[in-house]
Amino acid sequence: MDWIISDELGLTVGHLVGWGAAGAMIIGGVAPYIPQYRQIKKTQDAEGFSLYVCLTLLIANTLRILFWFGKRYELPLLIQSIVMNITMFVMIHLCVTVRKKNQIIRARERIFTAQPDETARWLDQRSSITGREKPHRFYDLDRKYFWAWTDFQSYLDCMLVFSVLGAAITYLLIEFSPFVELIGFLAVFTEAMLGAPQIAKNHQNKSTEGMSVSMVVMWTCGDVFKTAYFVVREAPTQFWVCGGLQVSLDIIILIQVWLYRHNTAAARRLRRGD
């Protein structure tokens, strides 16, 4: 009788641990962005946070969602991807809003569906000659301004186009196993490179001012936990291999915090007007 109770108790504890781990996977991915969000909100300065971090995660999690349709993995990982995409759009909305407020001189609007300058001028001339109305907007794929648009809707439109194209291609090739595995690899590899845009931003500024160190520390802890979770739960190989790469990039950012500590302190004093 005691053995039966012990066995049932062990099963219950095992379920609780499993649910706790699943909940940590879902919430833990979002948690690092809370201090960064609060810092941007408090300082009204979004320059230290790279929006390419958001782009990286949006692409990675969209691909991971598509991968689920070809090769079913654990449901918490799917939910995590959906929650993360929502979180990234929240971060983008805040950064775009703050940057607009900080504009002393109103800059030219840059949106995803804007006409490039040369095309716009040509269409103006053509319209004045023919008397016809100007065609509607063209996609502005100028690399210089890609993912540096001035309105939030442009980021939504861009990811919508990416998602629809990705879904269409996945639907056509869902039975082709190498393609499905490639999606899985691209999803986790893209996420593994999450720290790369922030590393580049820090290197360019020679400072980590504007970047939340708490966010990076939580990144590191979360990525270590996530990689261990992948190994223990026997997730597809792509997941835990790229998880290890992600931890390595987190460590590089923490090294930058130490290397640029003097420049960061000077930048903070300058911002405060000390």
Task: Explain what the structure shows.
The chain is built from eleven helices and no strands. It is mainly alpha-helical and 274 residues long. The chain is globular and about 60 Å long.
Helix-strand layout with pairing:
Layout: H1 2-28, H2 33-43, H3 51-70, H4 75-101, H5 117-130, H6 152-172, H7 177-192, H8 195-205, H9 213-232, H10 237-259, H11 261-272
Short description:
With 274 residues, the protein is mainly α. The chain has helices spanning 2-28, 33-43, 51-70, 75-101, 117-130, 152-172, 177-192, 195-205, 213-232, 237-259, 261-272. α3 (51-70) packs antiparallel against α7 (177-192).
**What order do the helices and strands follow?**
HHHHHHHHHHH
Q: What low-confidence regions span 5 or more consecutive residues with pLDDT below 50? A: 1-9, 115-127, 129-139
Distance N terminus to C terminus? 72 Å
Rg over C-alpha atoms, rounded to the nearest angstrom: 23 Å
List keywords for this structure.
disordered N terminus, 274 residues, globular
